[in-house]
Amino acid sequence: MEVKPSTLKGMVLTHWLLTILASMFFPGLQVSYMWGNFSAVAISVWVIAQKDSSDAALMYFLGMILTIITDIIILGFTYQVVFLAMKDSSIRFGFSAAVANVVLKGVSCYFIHVTYRKRGGNYKVDLGLFTPNQPADHQVDSSHQVEAQTLSC
């Protein structure tokens, strides 16, 4: 599957618009919500500008994952404001725009992942914690293994 540039541009525009609507109509949102989402939109411009960069796609993907997590936390903490102000339709609209933004981020992550793979990105992450090959000084000589097996029998 190939993601067209117009699809990426549409995703960026949608997330930008939903972030603006949530910020305008839902005063209970934290400033971190706006900073996180607008910085993800800024990274998405990098993805659109550099059409062959897998690094840009990876950064956008990771930024979207992080903003999904932070958005859920922020919306969870501010839900009480929405619950107490149920009669105010502008607050409900802003909250629903923020929730729609989070839901659409999951779909966007799929498209960004496809873009990342198409641009040559791979999953090889080496943190140096696990090494499947033992160093030469830890290898056991096979002649000692044979002697140990014959002695145990």
Class computed from helices, strands and strand pairing? mainly alpha
Strand share of the residues? under 5%
Q: What does the radius of gyration come to? A: 24 Å
Q: What is the oligomeric state here? A: single chain
What overall form do the CA principal axes indicate?
A: globular
Compute the number of strand runs: 0
Q: Largest sheet at a glance?
A: none
- Helix and strand element order: HHHHH
Folded structure, characterized:
The protein is globular. It has helices spanning 5-25, 31-49, 54-84, 89-118, 142-152. It is built from 5 helices and no strands. It has 153 residues and is mostly helical.
Q: Could you outline the blueprint of secondary structure elements for this entry?
A:
Blueprint: H1 5-25, H2 31-49, H3 54-84, H4 89-118, H5 142-152
Short structural description:
With 153 residues, this protein is mainly alpha-helical. It is built from five helices and no strands.
Please supply descriptive tags for the structure shown above.
153 residues, mainly alpha, 5 helices, 73% helix
